[in-house]
């Protein structure tokens, strides 16, 4: 039996992007073994930052509002607050179903790049 354990953010790890470091308008492109995704940080509404994701043909073919849930590894350890290579990214599509959010995981993240004002500023 595996348990879902929450682990602290591994800030010393190379190839990690921390969600809170994204500014409104930033674009984070990331690839998995199955497809390419684009995550965009939107302007804050009522003081709350939001994100939109596109890349999955069924869940988010166009930019769709999401909540960032974190990442998991093979042992279902949940890592909060960042995107790193070698882990599964976890998202909730906001209001996709009539009464609740739709949760989904990507395949293992292979690479990512952050773009600010159209210029790549960091990658992993």
Short description:
This protein has strands at 6-7, 16-18, 27-32, 36-41, 51-54, 64-72, 78-79, 82-84, 88-93, 102-116, 119-123. With 124 residues, the chain is mainly β. The chain is globular.
Q: How is this structure best described in words?
A:
It is a single chain. This protein has 124 residues and is an all-beta fold. The chain has one domain. The protein has strands at 6-7, 16-18, 27-32, 36-41, 51-54, 64-72, 78-79, 82-84, 88-93, 102-116, 119-123. A six-stranded antiparallel beta barrel has the order 3-4-5-6-9-10. Strands 2-8 form a two-stranded antiparallel ribbon. Strand 6 and strand 7 (78-79) form a beta hairpin. It starts with 5 loop residues before the first strand and ends with a strand.
DSSP, total strands: 11
Class derived from helix and strand content = mainly beta
What is the helix fraction of residues, given as a range? under 10%
> Cα-atom Rg, whole angstroms?
14 Å
Shape summary: globular
On the 0 to 100 scale, the average pLDDT is: 76
Number of domains: 1
Strand content: over 45%
End-to-end Cα distance, whole Å, is: 32 Å
* Helix-strand string: EEEEEEEEEEE
Task: Write out the strand line-up for the largest beta sheet, numbering strands in chain order.
Answer: 3-4-5-6-9-10
Tally the helices: what do you get?
0
- Uncertain residue ranges: 1-13
Largest sheet: 6 strands, antiparallel, barrel
């Amino acid at each position: 039996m595996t348990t879902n354990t929450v682990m602290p953010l591994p800030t010393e790890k190379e190839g990690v992007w921390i969600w809170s470091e994204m500014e409104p308008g930033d674009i984070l492109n990331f690839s998995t073994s199955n497809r390419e995704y684009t995550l965009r940080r939107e302007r804050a509404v009522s003081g709350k930052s939001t994100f939109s994701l596109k890349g999955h043909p069924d869940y988010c073919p166009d930019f769709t509002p999401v909540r960032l849930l974190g990442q998991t590894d093979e042992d279902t350890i949940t890592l909060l607050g960042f995107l790193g290579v070698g882990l599964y990214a976890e998202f909730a599509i906001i209001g996709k179903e009539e009464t609740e959010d739709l949760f989904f995981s990507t395949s293992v993240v292979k690479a990512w790049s952050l773009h600010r004002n159209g210029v790549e500023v960091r990658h992993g």
